[in-house]
Write a structure and sequence with these properties.
Strand order of the largest sheet: 6-7-8-3-9-10
Structural class: alpha/beta
Number of helices: 13
Oligomer: single chain
Radius of gyration: 24 Å
């Protein structure tokens, strides 16, 4: 089966700003593909070029085998695009807005009516469809935006930050709907700042930084490549440095321990990287007990996508976002830092 989306050596510049330097992706039909990266990494620009909303400076783009540059009109029939910012006419009801969208796609009236009823039911909009959109909450507005993007039954649905700012209930509803779309064969390309969202939904992921793809693969592959599980260990609620150093020296002697870091910001807790699929946690607990060292708290987890980003760039995704915000507006640096804390 031909790929649903092909992007090769995409480049896009806005004046002196090189928004996309070199992005190449191939997305298979029927998969959910996630794009991760900080603000300003080039994610939205990549989506806009794919959706015929921006003209690239170089590169090729295809949707279902059709060239975006040579046949943009045909590509628009195959794509559904839901932007990060929801723009709805507050005077229209949800149903009226969907009727307008159907007319823009030249859907026959009876077919449009059937499809409107279908998307309204699928996205739980039955109680809201005949109310003015100006009365909608953020979650309902996003659901209506999704419905509008699906009326013409696109082969590929492109979503830019589909659940940003939404409550847990609305996010859960959209997650369930996207899984349903995948099961029905729709290809979904999404960007998100929620690492757990991409981890939970995406079959494959690409990480973009400074306009370049720096890592790609399944979430499991990317996390396995980082190497090892993470163990966080606290000897006491407030551990003295000398005791933490003693524990670190002992733990570094185990062959399954790859790295030990004392985290002063977390009360001299110990952060370990250990070989996966080993009895590391049990061995560590027994050894500390035999050495007369206490355990206040301990946890073990697999590497996260943030660990993947950290390994690839040297900073966390949150730190990269804060740095990007500070570069755009230095006055926001202190505010962003306070939010991070």
């Amino acid at each position: 089966m031909a790929p649903a989306v092909v992007i090769e050596k995409l480049q896009k510049r806005y004046g002196k700003v090189e928004a996309v330097k070199d992005v190449s992706l191939q997305i298979d039909s029927g998969e959910i593909f996630g794009l991760l990266g900080p603000n300003g990494a080039g994610k939205t620009t990549t989506l806009r070029c794919l959706c015929t909303l921006a003209t690239p400076d170089a590169g090729t783009l295809e949707v279902a085998g059709v060239s975006v540059l040579d046949n943009p009109r045909e590509v628009r029939q195959k794509l559904g695009y839901v932007a990060q910012e929801v723009a709805l006419d507050k005077v229209l009801t949800g149903r009226e807005l969907l009727e307008l969208q159907a007319a823009l796609y030249h859907l026959p009236r009876e077919l449009a009516k059937l499809r409107i009823e279908a998307v309204v039911a699928a996205l739980g909009l039955g109680d809201w469809a005949d109310r003015r959109t100006g009365t909608y909450s953020g979650g309902i507005r996003k659901r209506l935006d999704l419905a509008a993007g699906l009326l013409h039954q696109p082969d590929v649905l492109v979503l830019d930050e589909p659940t940003v700012g939404l409550d847990i209930e609305s996010r859960s509803a959209i997650w369930s709907f996207l899984r349903q779309l995948k099961a029905e064969g729709t290809t979904v390309l999404l960007t998100s700042h929620y690492l757990e969202e991409v981890d939970a939904l995406a079959d494959r992921v690409a990480i973009i930084d400074k306009g370049v793809v720096i890592a790609s693969g399944t979430p499991s592959q990317l996390k396995d490549n980082v190497g090892g599980d993470r163990i966080t260990l606290r000897l006491r609620e407030f551990t003295v440095r000398a005791e933490a150093e003693a524990a670190k020296t002992m733990l570094q002697g185990f062959p399954f321990v790859q790295e030990v870091i004392i985290n002063e910001a977390q009360g001299n807790s110990l952060n370990l990287v250990v070989d996966a699929h080993s009895d590391a946690l049990l061995t560590i607990q027994q050894s500390l007990k035999e050495a007369g060292l206490p355990i206040f708290g301990v946890s073990q987890s697999r590497p996260s996508l943030d660990d993947v980003y950290l390994a690839a760039t040297g900073v966390t995704l949150l730190d990269a976002d804060i740095a990007a915000a500070a570069a755009r507006d230095p006055k926001q640096e202190k505010k962003q830092s306070m939010r991070a804390k």
